[in-house]
Structures are given as C-alpha cells and as structure tokens.
TrEMBL record:
InterPro entries in the record: SAM-dependent_MTases_sf, SAM_O-MeTrfase
GO BP: methylation
Keyword S-adenosyl-L-methionine: yes
Superkingdom classification of source: Bacteria
GO molecular function: O-methyltransferase activity
Record protein name field: Possible caffeoyl-CoA O-methyltransferase
C-alpha cells in the first residue's frame, strides 16, 4: 500500500510562501491583459496562477545560482507541464506514480489534470524538498489529490503493490535501468510511462531506452517538448 508524509502544518501555512514573496516579484497584469500562465486546477484564481508563475521563476533562478546539484529543483518546463496535463486527461488516468517530486511543480501539473477522485503518488528522498512541495500543494489546493512518499525510490517501490495508469519518471537517471522492470510491472496494460530529459540527457538514458526497446509489449515515441519526453506505452504481452 502507498504511505504518506505528515508535514508540519505551521510550515505549510507560512514558511515557503513568505520565502518566495521575499525573493521574487511578479508584477500584476495590466488592465485588459490576460495572465500568461493558466493551470486548470480547482479554485483556479489569479492568486494560484501567480503562485505557479512564482514557482516556475523561482526554480529557474535557484538552479542558476546553485552549484550543488542536490539543492537544484530541476523542474520541468512549462510546455512539458501542459503536455503532461493533456496526456493525463486524454487517457482518463486516475492513479499516477511520479518518481522525483522535487518542490512539487510537476506534481501540481499532474494532479491538476486528474478527476476529483484521482491521486498522484510522488516519491522524494530529500526531506527539505518534501516539505517545500507540501507547502506548494497546500497553496495551490492540490493536496487532496497528492500522496507524498518519502525515502529512497528503490526502497519505497519495494513496498508498492497497487497498479497505476501513468508514471512520470524524473529523478536520478542512473537508477532508471534498475527500476525499469519494477515500474512496468506496476503500470497497467494500456498505461503510459513518460520519461523527462530524453533529449537533453540522451546519453544517460541510452541503456534504459535500449531495455525498453527490447520489450515486445512496449511502444516508444520521443516527443520534442521541453527537454524531450520519452513516451512508453504498455500493451498486451
């Protein structure tokens, strides 16, 4: 069964949003202008749109300033978020597994595309990122659709037995080959796995892609969106 994290309520309500407010300034749209970014989530207000814009810009600025890779967010691009949202809606997914939460930017995109009874189960090992993501889920009113799983991905997945409709893979690429068989066992027939960074880090994914291509029931397509999205459809054996 999937477990979940108990985050600190006070930190959720106050800490990270204040941090964003101190470090980012997002101008109000002029009268008659539309917002440049719209995410279809419950309670879709200008405040939520601004929070998402803040998260996008904060992630970019943070990663440019950080030399320590573990402190970077390495978020998906906005067009990748839009692409994932369309995929989830088109296939009618209700249960999603995400490998690599980071600060939750991609998770919010996924959750926003789900029906009210849908769930995203998202795995992250970094405790600080877990807390930051939890804050962001609260601020964007997506918490009810998200279950945070905390720990090493291999250990967490060993306790998972429920099948899922959709998997988003965006973590340590060196682990993908070792995770592949287990992930596709969890993916339902007719389900879809999407792997980020398929063109930006193609060399690091070569062994994983070779394994996927060797499986007769898997169909593959590389889509030039964002940093490159590798789509893998699971068919009947």
């Amino acid at each position: 069964m999937f477990g979940e994290v108990n985050a600190t309520k006070e930190l959720r309500r106050h800490g990270y949003l204040r941090y964003l407010t101190r470090h980012l300034s997002v101008a109000n749209p002029r009268e008659g202008e539309s917002m440049s970014f719209v995410i279809p989530i419950e309670g879709n207000t200008l405040e939520i749109q601004r929070i998402m814009e803040d998260l996008e810009q904060f992630g970019i600025k943070n990663d440019l300033a950080q030399s320590d890779k573990s402190k970077k967010y390495l978020n998906i691009t906005r067009d990748t978020g839009e692409f994932l949202s369309v995929l989830v809606k088109a296939m009618g997914a209700r249960k999603i597994l995400e490998i690599g939460t980071s600060n939750g930017y991609s998770t919010i995109w996924l959750a926003s595309a789900l029906p009210d009874d849908g769930k995203v189960y998202t795995i992250e090992a970094n405790p600080q990122k877990v807390e930051e993501a939890s804050l962001n889920f609260d601020q964007t009113h997506t918490s009810s659709k998200i279950v945070q799983l905390v720990g090493d991905v291999t250990e967490v997945l060993s306790d998972v037995s429920e099948s899922v409709d959709f998997i988003f893979l965006d973590a340590d690429r060196k682990t993908y080959l070792s995770l592949a068989e287990g992930l596709f066992n969890l993916l339902k027939t007719g389900g879809l796995l999407v792997c980020d960074n398929a063109t930006s880090h193609a060399d690091e994914l070569s062994e994983f892609r070779a394994w996927v291509s060797s499986q007769q029931n898997l169909s593959v397509s590389l889509v030039p969106v964002g940093k490159g999205e590798l789509l893998v459809y699971k068919g009947e054996k």
